[in-house]
Write a structure and sequence with these properties.
By secondary structure, the chain is of the alpha+beta class. It folds into two domains: 201 residues, Alpha-beta prism (UDP-n-acetylglucosamine1-carboxyvinyl-transferase, Chain), CATH 3.65.10.10; 197 residues, Enolpyruvate transferase domain (UDP-n-acetylglucosamine1-carboxyvinyl-transferase, Chain, Alpha-beta prism). The protein has 14 helices and 23 strands. The protein has a four-stranded mixed sheet. It has a four-stranded mixed sheet with strand order 2-14-16-15, with helices on one face. A four-stranded mixed sheet has the order 4-5-3-13, with helices on one face. Helix 1 packs parallel to helix 2 and helix 8 packs parallel to helix 10. The structure holds uridine-diphosphate-N-acetylglucosamine.
Length: 414
């Protein structure tokens, strides 16, 4: 069992590049199942969620080769449409194979994704969208989906769900005729999926209001695609820099996707921005943040809510964070309290009263982003912190101790 050992109190300083985007690569890997020819994904992050997704692709009959950060997938041999529970259990985004399998094989059998650490995470919007495209479902402990043939449709999502938008896009690429997805999620990871499908010859475009329009049924061919930097990993390290009062620069070709974080950091008195393909923070003492709520893109991302909370623990004054996306994303609070933080939670809102210092403790990562938040807290704490259950962190961060060591942190994976 591995754990992270961090001695706090160092000011982070330096420049690093970050891994490719997790949330963009997972739907792109599912999209490799469609069409013909070899897909080469460059700058693919080496993380647990990617390894599990590649295992699913292999089990479906794809040929998968990895070499460092490059992954090569050939789906011509794929003929299996069932994902076994053992393959899907660790990774919630296995639900994205529903749209891809329906598109490729007209059938899909997928274990019903259960609730997870951060909340209930229903899939009703995924099913409604696929139903509009001509799919039928039988649901017990698994989702059994089939179609006589997918057809284009006008879909209006009840909420801009990232996963439902991705599933609708994947199925619609193989459906006859035009599909229009209204109230589609606007997250940049969806735009990366669209760019990848365009590269493969697909006809898909985003309109000014966020609507996605697809001319389905076009053949998809081989492509080489390079993943953009992960905006959540970038944001985590920028928050770590701000919280330690340091100077951190992240090589990131998509700095504009961090605009909501920059707006929050500026309210906290932190000098930050983008310059020459990089995003930076120049910390000083961090001020309290009167109010922020998480929201779909371009709002403040729920995935940075816990890291932000950790960065607010030592400010003068009281900050308030409201979580509007997932109902169970305050599990980090209990661990931060062990480190001396003063936080109270009422419903979906947390009040963080700044304390002069945090103390090193033994804490356990409650989920992926909550684990990253504990790292940020530990970097500021007096003394040594041990973080257990680091498997969660490794699902999304390629090597958080390598990256933060490069910035001057005293952190070791043991
Ligand atoms: C994706 C991201 C995750 C991020 C989240 C929100 C990936 C692999 N994961 O998750 O990191 O935190 O977007 O930005 O990309 N909902 C329904 N019914 C549905 C689908 C969603 O009610 O059918 C609700 C959810 O409970 C949640 C909200 O919609 O309250 C947003 O969920 P969604 O955008 O679907 O998140 P994911 O795609 O699961």
């Amino acid at each position: 069992m591995s754990y992270l050992e961090i001695s706090g109190g160092r000011t982070l300083c330096g420049e690093i590049s970050v891994q490719g985007s997790k949330n963009a690569v997972l739907p792109i890997l599912a999209a490799c199942l469609l069409g013909e020819g070899v897909c080469v994904i460059e700058n693919c992050p080496q993380i647990g969620d990617v390894e599990d997704t590649l295992e699913i692709l292999r089990a479906l009959g794809c040929s998968v080769c990895t070499c460092g950060h490059t992954v090569q997938i050939h789906a011509s041999g794929a003929g299996i449409y069932e994902i076994k529970r053992a393959e899907a259990v660790r990774i919630r985004s296995s639900v994205l194979f529903l749209g891809a399998l329906l598109g490729k094989m007209k059938k899909a059998v997928i274990p019903l994704p259960g609730g997870c650490a951060i909340g209930k995470r229903p899939v009703d919007q995924h099913l409604c969208a696929l139903e509009a495209l001509g799919a039928r479902f039988c649901i017990d402990e698994t989702i059994t989906a089939s179609t006589q043939g997918l057809h284009g449709a006008r879909i209006t999502l009840a909420m801009p769900s990232v996963g439902a938008t991705e599933n609708a896009v994947l199925a619609a690429m193989m459906a006859d005729g035009e599909t229009v997805i209204q109230n589609a999620a606007k997250e940049p990871e969806i735009d990366e999926l669209c760019a990848f499908l365009q590269r493969r010859g697909g006809c898909i475009a985003r309109e000014a209001d966020g609507t996605i329009r697809i001319q389905g049924g076009r053949p998809l061919g081989p492509a080489v695609y390079r993943m953009q930097a992960d905006r959540i990993v970038s944001g985590t390290y920028l928050l770590a820099g701000a919280a330690t009062g340091g100077y951190v620069k992240i090589q990131n070709d998509a700095g504009q996707t961090l605009a909501s974080l920059f707006s929050v950091l500026r309210q906290m008195g932190v000098h930050c921005g983008t310059s020459g393909g990089a995003a930076f923070v120049q910390g000083g003492p961090v001020s309290a943040l009167s109010y922020v709520e998480t929201a779909p893109y371009p709002g403040f991302p729920t995935d940075l809510q816990s890291p932000l909370m950790a960065a607010l623990c030592r400010t003068q004054g009281t900050s308030c964070i409201c979580e509007t996306i997932f109902e169970n994303r305050f599990r980090t609070v209990e661990e931060l309290l062990k480190m001396g933080a003063r936080i109270t939670v009422e419903g979906r809102c947390a009040q963080i009263r700044g304390v002069p210092a945090l103390r090193g403790s033994v804490v356990s990562a409650p989920d992926l982003r909550g684990g990253a938040a504990l790292v940020i807290a530990a970097l500021q704490a007096k003394g040594r912190t041990v973080i257990t259950d680091t498997g969660y962190i490794e699902r999304g961060y390629e090597d958080i101790s390598r990256d933060l060591s490069c910035l001057g942190a005293d952190i070791r994976r043991i």
